[in-house]
Amino acid sequence: MTLISMTPAKDGYVLAADSQETCPSYDEQGNYRELRRSVQKIEPRAFSNYGVAIAGSGNASLIDSFIVRAHRAIEKDIENASAEHLRTLLEDELADFQIKDVVACTDDNKSFQLFIGYCCAATKEHGVWISKNVVLEDLREPALIGDAHELYSEIVDRLFAPGMTVPQAILVSLHVLTIAEATSNSVKGPFSVAIIRENGIWMDDPPFIVDMVSRLKDIEAWTNHVLLACADTSISPGKLGELLTEFSARAVGLHQAQIQRVAQMQVDKGFFIINDSHPRLPPGTRLTIPEMGSISVECDIDVPDWYKAGWEKLKKMEEERRAKEQATPPDLHTSRDPQ
User: What CA–CA distance (Å, rounded) separates 189 from 193?
Assistant: First the structure.
């Protein structure tokens, strides 16, 4: 068993998974037992026209087999690229897989369910599908597969908000996985995170994932304390105000320390090899990197006029590029020569 989370954001989708795989086994006396191993459950693949990330819960051997078949089908495909064509291609492959591979499987439990994240370079489409038998259904709301206990769904529902950013969607996914790890024998880290956007699929770096989990744990105890205090009518308004002032000071101080740590991690990683799918620091953050010692981080500073002008110029260039693409007939930039 496993737990895989899908959380939509205003500019992408987030897939997150634990790494525990439970394998049924029998000892010499025929007694059933479960073996557990750590596996990478999200491995994106880049093809000529698509980026695809398939993650599944259920029969591991069947999931692995379908991923192989899906990748082969995409590699052989020569039709015009689009999300709808990719869906039809994978649904046909899934139907054939059910007839052949699933029927031939000798396991008692043959069930499985899939998340399929995709992006199409030609049409700038991206999204996530969930498998329902041999049908792939669009996802626009958060979803869980695997050990999807009602508790975990409730946590996601309380934290999710339409239009949230990719960094916040990642935090939602990691928070529910952290709770699941603490309450279920079927879920265990380390966790993996994939971000699906119109221009590609990225795997988040493990050190940053560990840091985000740590950040959530650092702040959770205090936010719970404030939640109860705000709803407690036995606490006077004055006392509540003092508590909120203390919380504000602690939260801002902790947030500053977390920004400092993430900035240092990015510097240590190397600015010139960073290829992140989302921002990790506030816009306009100023970093001062000394020859020795820790870096200096400044936030909420006035953005220089030259920077604003350059940014506006880049935005205008991007808008003109998109307008040009939309005005180009689809057959001129999506067709492929089958020869």
Answer: 12
Task: For 17-32, write each residue's pLDDT tens digit.
Answer: 998 876 665 567 766 6
Residues 6+ apart with CB under 8 A from 284: 299, 300, 301, 303, 307
Mean pLDDT across the chain:
87
- Please identify, among 147, 181, 204, the residue that sits at the C-terminal boundary of a domain: 204
Helix axis angle, 150-159 to 166-183, nearest 10°: 150
Shared-domain flag, residues 213 and 195: no
Q: How far apart are CA 205 and CA 211, in angstroms?
A: 10
pLDDT tens, residue by residue, 270-297: 764 556 778 888 887 888 888 887 888 8
Same domain, residue pair 14 and 160: yes
Around 58, how many Cα atoms within 13 Å sit in the side-chain half-sphere? 21
Among candidate residues 178, 204, 230, the one where a domain is terminated: 204
DSSP letter at 239?
H
174 and 226 co-located in one domain: no
Phi, psi of 172 (to 5 degrees): -60, -50
Domain, as residue range, for 257: 208-281
Do 194 and 205 form a contact (C-beta atoms < 8 A)?
no
For the chain, the domain total comes to 2
Whether the pLDDT of residue 7 is over 90: the answer is yes
CA dist 137 and 113 (Å) reads 12
